[in-house]
Design a protein that fits this description.
Helices cover about 35% and strands about 25% of the residues. It has helices at about 40-45, 55-60, 90, 110-135, 155-165, 200-205, 255-270, 280-285, 295-315, 335-345, 360-370; strands at about 1-15, 20-25, 25-30, 35, 70-75, 80-85, 140-150, 170-175, 185-195, 220-230, 235-240, 240-245, 325-330, 350-355. The strands form 2 sheets. A 9-stranded mixed beta sheet has the order 3-2-1-7-9-8-5-6-4. It has a 5-stranded mixed beta sheet with strand order 12-11-10-13-14. Helix 7 (about 255-270) packs across helix 9 and helix 8 (about 280-285) packs across helix 9 (about 295-315). The radius of gyration is 22 Å and the shape is globular.
């Protein structure tokens, strides 16, 4: 049964740790992880878990974003093709997740962020069709009217056109294998906007973020955004309302994900194979109770990486005078009061920290709404 075309507007903040995506203003978050499968789905999907076509079973799977835990797809696209477990389902198949400095679009020699995005669109299309029709069709057509996504500044300079063209005007087919019969979702993109990390953070500064600082007084000021990303740390400045990359500061000091991986590797060098962990599991344990022995070990290992990282930030920032510094990106979860106070006192400049890990997605949504 064919269903009328579905239309979406999408903002994607696709880091190496988590995908944070808004589809028609609905928020989704899941691990940026895909596990390729060498054969087609009859071997990698447990047939007993494939859903019976009855209302109760399907509704419980599709509603409240429950499908994020079980995304099992095959993809046919100019950007990437193959069979994959995606998100939490992929993460559950791995003991460790190797990490390198390459952006999420190219990590593990496959377009991870692209696969995650296509998969999410496919499942949302199935859910939204089910809500309207109370049927699970075999083919659904989706038109993404607008997509805004980001790259690190280095990746933006080298891969902007590659990223843009990987969406293109071609059709991208996602086949979903969680049901008794496979469902094909055919996706096309009308307008694609690729933005460098940090630019939207400054363009859509929020007065609530600035803790009492008068935003109107800063419009002509010199503001620095330090986007502590997973793959890289990017520096962007706003001066007299003009936003630009700070080339002399962008020295490729790496991102938070690299620091976590180094912490894991250091632990394993001390006690080989004793601390095999994915980065997300490492963080979950490190952020746990101080009463937990393993949590304290993980925290100490991570702090050994964070201290020189923040020291390097301090040295770079001191090379140029700014009226205000803003910290954004996934790294803000490590910007505790100790680091913040030390940095602020050292450079004698006010510092504000993005309110949460969805701040970048907030800015992308505002940008999308204005275009």
């Amino acid at each position: 049964m064919n269903i009328k075309e579905i239309h979406y507007n999408i903002s994607q903040d696709g880091n190496n740790d988590k995908q944070r995506i808004a589809i028609n203003s609905e928020r989704f978050s899941f691990p940026t992880q895909v596990t390729p499968q060498s054969t087609l789905p009859l071997t990698f999907v447990d047939l007993k878990r494939m859903l019976d076509p009855n209302a109760n079973t399907i509704s419980s799977y599709l509603e409240k974003q429950a499908f994020l835990n079980k995304m099992e797809v095959s993809i046919n696209s100019p950007g990437s093709s193959g069979a994959f477990l995606v998100g939490d389902e992929a993460l559950d198949t791995l003991d460790t997740v190797n990490y390198n400095e390459i952006d999420a679009w190219d990590r593990q020699d496959k377009n991870t962020a692209f696969i995650c995005l296509l998969s999410l669109i496919g499942y949302c299309a199935v859910r939204d069709t089910w809500r309207k029709k109370q049927v699970v069709p075999q083919i659904i057509n989706v038109k993404v009217d607008n997509l805004v996504t980001t790259l690190t500044q280095t990746e933006y300079e080298t891969n902007k056109l590659t990223t843009y063209h990987q969406f293109g005007k071609a059709n991208h087919t996602v086949t979903i294998w969680n049901f008794k019969k496979p469902i094909k979702v055919v996706i096309s993109f009308e307008h694609v906007m690729v933005i460098p990390d940090g630019f939207m953070d400054l363009k859509y500064l929020d007065s609530n973020l600035l803790c009492g600082i008068n935003l109107s007084e800063l419009r002509e000021s010199k503001i620095l955004d330090i986007h502590m990303g997973d793959a890289a740390t990017d520096f962007t400045k706003s001066e007299k309302s003009t936003i630009s990359s700070v080339n002399n500061l962008n020295q490729n000091i790496g991102g938070i994900g690299l620091l976590i991986q180094r912490a894991i590797e250091e632990l394993n060098s001390e006690k080989p194979n004793s601390f095999n962990s994915s980065r997300l599991n490492f963080l979950a344990i490190a952020n746990g109770s101080n009463n937990n022995v393993v949590a304290r070990i993980f925290q100490d290992a991570l702090n050994k990486q964070l201290v020189p990282y923040f020291k390097k930030l301090e040295e770079l920032i001191k090379s140029e005078r700014f009226d205000l510094i803003m910290m954004s990106g996934p790294g803000i979860q490590f910007m505790n009061k100790t680091y913040l106070d030390a940095l602020s006192q050292s450079i004698n400049t006010p510092i504000v920290v993005a309110k949460d890990l969805f701040f970048n997605l907030d800015c992308l949504e505002k940008y999308l709404q204005s275009h």
